[in-house]
Design brief:
single chain, 102 residues, 2 domains, mainly alpha, flat
Length: 102
């Protein structure tokens, strides 16, 4: 299936998609309660219910925020960056290693 069509389909059916995603999330967190053995956790905080879910969510948010910061710090260029005419672009700086003879 074409990715654009999939995104459009999901966007057009948000009233169904959001509850389904929340139900899957709830099942995963409940599965953490019943299926994950916390007896051999490495740190005390790992014994708390939903710790790894919260840790993963916070990690994803941090990755998104840092990526956006990098983008706005100078990685992003204008949309028309490559479309400007050559005469509109600044002239390259030429460093000559040969001494000039006057």
């Amino acid at each position: 299936m074409n990715l654009v069509r999939l995104i459009e389909y999901l966007r057009n059916h948000l009233k169904t998609v959001i509850p389904v995603c929340l139900a899957v999330l709830a099942l995963l967190v409940i599965g953490d309660w019943f299926l994950v053995d916390k007896e051999h956790a490495h740190t005390p905080i790992e014994h708390y219910f939903g710790f790894w879910s919260a840790f993963g969510f916070i990690g994803c948010v941090a990755i998104i925020l840092v990526s956006k910061w990098f983008g706005h710090a100078g990685i992003m260029k204008r949309e028309d960056y490559y479309e400007t005419a050559p005469e509109e672009q600044p002239a390259p700086v030429r460093n000559s290693t040969k001494p000039s003879h006057h």
